Amino acid sequence: MLTLFHHPFSPSARFVRLILAEYGAKTELQVERPWERRRDFLLLNPAGTVPVLRENDGPAICGVFAIMEYIDETRGYAVGNRRLMPDHPDARAETRRLVDWAVAKLDQEVVGPFVRERVYKQEMPSSAGGGAPDSAVLRAARTNIHHHMRYFGYLAATRNWLSGDRLSFADFAVAAELSCADYLGEVPWAEEDNVKAWYARIKSRPSFRPLLAEKILGMPPSPTYEDLDF
Amino acid sequence: MLTLFHHPFSPSARFVRLILAEYGAKTELQVERPWERRRDFLLLNPAGTVPVLRENDGPAICGVFAIMEYIDETRGYAVGNRRLMPDHPDARAETRRLVDWAVAKLDQEVVGPFVRERVYKQEMPSSAGGGAPDSAVLRAARTNIHHHMRYFGYLAATRNWLSGDRLSFADFAVAAELSCADYLGEVPWAEEDNVKAWYARIKSRPSFRPLLAEKILGMPPSPTYEDLDF
Questions:
Q1: What is the Rg, in whole angstroms, of the alpha carbon atoms belonging to chain A?
Q2: Where is the GST N-terminal domain (chains A, B) (predicted)?
Q3: Is the pLDDT of residue B230 over 90?
Q4: How many helices (H) and strands (E) are present in chain B, helices listed first?
Q5: What is the pLDDT confidence band of residue A230, given thresholds at 50, 70 and 90?
Q6: What is the predicted pLDDT for the residue at A222?
Q7: B104: closest CA of chain A, how far (Å)
């Protein structure tokens, strides 16, 4: 049995939920609020961050890079040509580059600030840094997202999926990040038709359904968040 | 032929230089100053960051995660039991967790700020953000390093190498980061004997020699930087 420690609006934990579903791995979800610094959780992951995956009583698998490779190494054989990691070393490198782009660069410059300011700070007590969003931070993220949209637009226009011919981890890493920004109505879809068309294909996969059903108390999703034909 | 685009004081590029040497992969080094945003380099890696590895006329392999796995996938068979990635999925996950800790957490909280404030800002023109170091940033990094030293001390005291019984990518990722801070005299070695003893073992490997010979013009290394018996 797999257990995933996650937060519903952690973009990288969303990425892991998507790929676990794509690999058909039944997983128990346990919500963790990293800012609470729960002692038993810090024993599992001293970095104190989600996502953390655990298989039965095995050791904790911490962070997206470790989890993504672990899922493919332990379950890749069972899904045949639906594996999300390509075979050739060059193609694997391209998939990993784009996952890194999503969970590090896109997250730091755009989605992390949106989620922290607009979601986490509402949930956190003021002693842990909660409070009103910082408008300067939101403004910077709203500027930065255009560069990323242009780059994803270029990839979506020149390739079948973001990292090449085949659906890969890269598509889910980028889609998971964008899904958090989309809930908050922060994705300028009209700017990039190719990104929109690519996201519509990803969003209609069964693995995406649980994410589209997530709700933040008192903060409804943007009008098109659940809409497959947005 | 392999070509590595690097900066001598980029901690993650140092990590790649170490592991290329450990795998016996002859590599041509090309210095890149990421803040110059050189057009041909941005075509190789649109993120504009080092390290980037290229094999002959093949595609660019960008970033430590992609490069580390690529080296092991393409050269692991040739080095036998000197591979730096363990075989078992659990042990691989632990190695990847600690590489992530080094190149993301340790770099963001400690080594990145030291290098940016004390090295890069001396090399950069003021139009690119160069200038005097920000003492508040240095103070924060000097506070943060103690937590990391304690954690590495715990690992070094309970394991033969940082991620387990065998030398792995994790040891080189952490050592590469610490080597940059050590050049600047910013590592409180006296606090953690176990970390010091572990670093002395890593530092005496032939792969480390080129790093110990690096010099910044006008800024000599700390007195013990090159000393194997520090």
A1: 17
A2: 1-79
A3: no
A4: 10, 4
A5: confident
A6: 95
A7: 9
Range of the domain at A162: 89-212
Which chain B positions have a beta carbon within 8 Å of A88's beta carbon? none
- The pLDDT confidence band at residue B42, using thresholds 50, 70 and 90, is very high
- Alpha carbon of A73: minimum distance to chain B alpha carbons (Å): 7
A118, A202: one domain:
yes
Question: Is the Cβ of B144 closer than 8 Å to some Cβ of chain A?
Answer: no
Shared domain check, A172 and A102: yes
Same domain for B103 and B71? no
Distance CA A71, CA A205 (A): 19
Listed in sequence order, the residues at least 6 apart from A113 whose beta carbon sits closer than 8 Å to its beta carbon are A137, A138, A140, A141
Alpha-carbon gap: B184 to the closest alpha carbon of chain A (Å): 26
End-of-domain residue from the set B38, B62, B82: B82
**Same domain, residue pair A139 and A174:** yes
Question: Chain B interface, mutation test: which of A90, A144, A148, most B Cβ atoms within 10 Å?
Answer: A90
**Number of domains chain B is built from:** 2
Chain A positions in Cβ-Cβ contact with residue B61 (cut-off 8 Å) = 90, 93, 97
Task: Judge whether B38 lies within some domain.
Answer: yes
Query: Chain A within 8 Å of B62 (Cβ-Cβ)?
Result: yes
Contact call for residues B105 and A47 (beta carbons, < 8 A): yes
Residue appearing with tokens 């685009």? B5
Q: Are residues B135 and B156 both part of a single domain?
A: yes
| Per-residue pLDDT tens over the stretch B150-159 | 999 999 999 9
- Mean pLDDT (whole number) for B56-75: 97
Q: Using a CB-CB distance cutoff of 8 angstroms, which residues of chain B are in contact with residue A96?
A: 63, 65-66, 69
Same domain, A70 and A132: no
Q: Is the reported ipTM for this assembly greater than 0.90? A: yes
Cβ separation of A96 and B47 shorter than 8 Å? no
CA distance B52 to B60: 6
Q: In the structure encoding, which two tokens stand for residue A176, read together?
A: 């998971």
- The confidence score (pLDDT) of residue B121 equals 94
Q: Which of B61, B100, B151 has the CB atom closest to A65's CB atom? A: B100
